[in-house]
């Protein structure tokens, strides 16, 4: 299970087994999506599988995740998502009402993201060999001219900005799965981020890196970008937008909000001279109203992420070994 958690074990599996087996430079870039050229057009392509349990949770469902997750992976290259495929793996005995709810959620989310589901597949597996419904989506989109967004471009001096509060999705799923109550309902933040990214690019096409911190949370994504770019990252711990309900839930369960999954959040690495304007554009968009400057890239300690604590000290934000909470997406 640790190898599917988005942390160090996942990175080990990808880098030492899968990338050598498939062997090409496009895959080796290890972005949220692949960027390829076809017939003179720059395309972004991504695929992801969704096995979340339970399938329905406060604020969303496996259907929303399947669309938004792939649309967001494309958006992290600056691409406008155009088309999706959707494959369903259904366990024998699954109620048709459940399957209908999943399919309708996929259709509704696709319409909200302005993307079309144009092809798909359905397989049924024996009882006990699945868990209700699994979904795989793949997507393609166009990357605008003059846009070059990838982890390797993060550079010393860049401002690090997150688009909203941390940890909502992971805590929302966990609360339903475990039957926990925290005094207030916590809803998943699942949302399509393509429009937000386009609003940011309207300010400047020179955004260096974007990622959506899903499995492994913000902590894992920051470590991946620091390693890919050879820069250090310094966070201001007191500026991290962790909602009180999430902080209380994580404190109760012994979790660090930095490693809890998000599904409607992005982290941006923006040249300092553009940071204020990009931040203002994000806050003017519905999916970026809570955008916050949380840190910066530095030349010191390359490949390492550290956080300045409220007491004036620092702590290292390591790449987690695996996911704190399995089956989050």
UniProtKB/TrEMBL annotation:
Pfam families (alphabetical): AIRS, AIRS_C
Start and end residues of each PurM-like C-terminal domain: 156-301
SUPFAM superfamilies: PurM C-terminal domain-like, PurM N-terminal domain-like
Gene3D superfamilies assigned to the protein according to its UniProt record, in alphabetical order: PurM-like C-terminal domain (3.90.650.10), PurM-like, N-terminal domain (3.30.1330.10)
InterPro entries: HypE, PurM-like_C_dom, PurM-like_C_sf, PurM-like_N, PurM-like_N_sf
Gene Ontology biological-process entries: protein maturation
Occurrences of domain PurM-like N-terminal (ranges): 32-143
Protein family (similarity comment): Belongs to the HypE family.
NCBIfam families with a match to the protein in the record: hypE (TIGR02124)
PANTHER family: CARBAMOYL DEHYDRATASE HYPE, HYDROGENASE ISOENZYMES FORMATION PROTEIN HYPE
Name by which UniProt lists this protein: Hydrogenase expression/formation protein HypE
Source organism per UniProt: Streptomyces carminius
Biological classification of the source: Bacteria, Bacillati, Actinomycetota, Actinomycetes, Kitasatosporales
Gene (UniProt): hypE
């Amino acid at each position: 299970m640790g190898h599917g958690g988005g942390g160090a074990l996942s990175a080990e599996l990808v880098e030492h087994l899968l990338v050598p087996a498939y062997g090409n430079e496009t895959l080796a870039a290890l972005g949220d999506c692949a960027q390829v050229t076809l017939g003179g057009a720059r395309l972004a392509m991504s695929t992801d599988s969704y096995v979340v349990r339970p399938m329905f949770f406060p604020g969303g469902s496996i259907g929303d995740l399947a669309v938004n997750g792939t649309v967001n992976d494309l958006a992290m290259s600056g691409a406008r998502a155009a088309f999706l495929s959707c494959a369903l793996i259904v366990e024998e005995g699954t109620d048709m009402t459940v399957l209908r709810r999943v399919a309708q959620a996929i259709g509704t989310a696709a319409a909200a993201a302005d993307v079309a589901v144009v092809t798909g597949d359905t397989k049924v597996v024996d009882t006990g060999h699945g868990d209700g419904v699994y979904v795989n989506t793949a997507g393609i989109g166009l990357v605008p001219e003059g846009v070059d967004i990838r982890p390797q471009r993060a550079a010393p001096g860049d401002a690090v900005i997150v688009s909203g509060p941390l940890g909502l999705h992971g805590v929302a799923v966990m609360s339903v799965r475990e039957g926990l109550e925290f005094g207030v309902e916590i809803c998943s933040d699942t949302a399509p981020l393509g429009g937000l990214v386009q609003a940011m690019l309207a300010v400047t096409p020179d955004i260096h890196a974007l990622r959506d911190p899903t499995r492994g949370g913000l902590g894992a994504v920051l470590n991946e970008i620091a390693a890919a770019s050879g820069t250090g990252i310094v966070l201001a711990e007191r500026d991290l937008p962790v909602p009180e309900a999430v902080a209380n839930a994580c404190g109760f369960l012994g979790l660090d909000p930095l490693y809890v999954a998000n599904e409607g959040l992005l982290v941006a690495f923006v040249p300092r001279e553009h940071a204020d304007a990009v931040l203002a554009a994000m806050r003017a968009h519905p999916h970026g109203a809570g955008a916050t400057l949380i840190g910066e890239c530095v030349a010191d300690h390359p490949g390492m992420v550290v956080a300045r604590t409220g007491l004036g000290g620092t702590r290292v934000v390591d790449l987690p070994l695996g996911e704190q909470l399995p089956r989050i997406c």
